[in-house]
Specification:
Structural class: mainly alpha
Helix content: over 70%
Radius of gyration: 19 Å
Order of helices and strands: HHHH
Shape: flat
Number of strands: 0
Protein backbone atom coordinates (compact mmCIF):
# COMPACT_ATOMS: atom_id res chain seq x y z
CA UNK A 1 0.00 0.00 0.00
CA UNK A 2 1.16 3.51 -0.78
CA UNK A 3 -0.37 4.89 2.43
CA UNK A 4 2.48 3.39 4.46
CA UNK A 5 5.14 4.95 2.23
CA UNK A 6 3.66 8.42 2.40
CA UNK A 7 3.12 8.44 6.18
CA UNK A 8 6.40 8.27 8.14
CA UNK A 9 4.62 8.12 11.52
CA UNK A 10 2.64 5.06 10.49
CA UNK A 11 5.80 3.45 9.13
CA UNK A 12 7.58 4.10 12.44
CA UNK A 13 4.70 2.63 14.46
CA UNK A 14 4.58 -0.48 12.26
CA UNK A 15 8.35 -0.95 12.59
CA UNK A 16 8.14 -0.51 16.36
CA UNK A 17 5.32 -3.07 16.54
CA UNK A 18 7.41 -5.54 14.54
CA UNK A 19 10.36 -5.00 16.89
CA UNK A 20 8.19 -5.55 19.98
CA UNK A 21 6.72 -8.71 18.44
CA UNK A 22 10.22 -10.04 17.66
CA UNK A 23 11.48 -9.36 21.20
CA UNK A 24 8.37 -10.93 22.76
CA UNK A 25 8.71 -14.11 20.68
CA UNK A 26 12.39 -14.50 21.59
CA UNK A 27 11.64 -13.79 25.27
CA UNK A 28 8.89 -16.41 25.46
CA UNK A 29 11.04 -18.96 23.61
CA UNK A 30 13.92 -18.38 26.03
CA UNK A 31 11.63 -18.72 29.06
CA UNK A 32 10.06 -21.92 27.71
CA UNK A 33 13.47 -23.55 27.15
CA UNK A 34 15.00 -22.41 30.43
CA UNK A 35 15.04 -24.80 33.39
CA UNK A 36 13.24 -23.89 36.60
CA UNK A 37 16.52 -23.74 38.49
CA UNK A 38 18.05 -21.23 36.08
CA UNK A 39 14.86 -19.18 35.99
CA UNK A 40 14.66 -18.94 39.77
CA UNK A 41 18.34 -18.02 40.01
CA UNK A 42 17.98 -15.35 37.31
CA UNK A 43 14.84 -14.03 39.02
CA UNK A 44 16.61 -13.78 42.36
CA UNK A 45 19.57 -11.96 40.81
CA UNK A 46 17.22 -9.63 38.95
CA UNK A 47 15.39 -8.80 42.18
CA UNK A 48 18.69 -8.02 43.91
CA UNK A 49 19.84 -5.84 41.02
CA UNK A 50 16.45 -4.13 40.87
CA UNK A 51 16.58 -3.27 44.55
CA UNK A 52 20.10 -1.87 44.20
CA UNK A 53 19.10 0.23 41.17
CA UNK A 54 15.77 1.22 42.77
CA UNK A 55 13.70 -0.36 39.98
CA UNK A 56 11.51 -2.45 42.26
CA UNK A 57 8.26 -2.23 40.33
CA UNK A 58 9.42 -3.07 36.84
CA UNK A 59 11.71 -5.90 37.98
CA UNK A 60 8.92 -7.45 40.03
CA UNK A 61 6.60 -7.31 37.01
CA UNK A 62 9.21 -8.93 34.74
CA UNK A 63 9.92 -11.68 37.28
CA UNK A 64 6.22 -12.32 37.83
CA UNK A 65 5.58 -12.40 34.07
CA UNK A 66 8.46 -14.83 33.59
CA UNK A 67 7.16 -17.19 36.27
CA UNK A 68 3.62 -17.09 34.87
CA UNK A 69 4.93 -17.70 31.34
CA UNK A 70 6.98 -20.65 32.57
CA UNK A 71 3.86 -22.16 34.14
CA UNK A 72 1.62 -21.53 31.13
CA UNK A 73 3.91 -22.23 28.18
CA UNK A 74 4.61 -25.85 27.30
CA UNK A 75 8.20 -27.05 27.12
CA UNK A 76 9.56 -26.04 23.73
CA UNK A 77 10.21 -28.95 21.40
CA UNK A 78 13.76 -28.44 20.15
CA UNK A 79 13.25 -30.76 17.17
CA UNK A 80 10.41 -28.58 15.89
CA UNK A 81 12.67 -25.52 15.72
CA UNK A 82 15.39 -27.35 13.79
CA UNK A 83 15.45 -26.00 10.22
CA UNK A 84 17.54 -28.80 8.77
CA UNK A 85 15.66 -31.26 6.60
CA UNK A 86 14.96 -34.51 8.33
CA UNK A 87 16.21 -37.68 6.77
CA UNK A 88 13.62 -40.39 6.14
CA UNK A 89 13.89 -43.45 8.31
CA UNK A 90 14.71 -46.71 6.56
Amino acid sequence: MNATKSNPVLEFVLNAADAVRYVWQRYTAAIAQMSWKKLLLASLLALFAGSILQLHGIVQLVVLASLVLKCVLPKADLSATDNSPSEPEQ
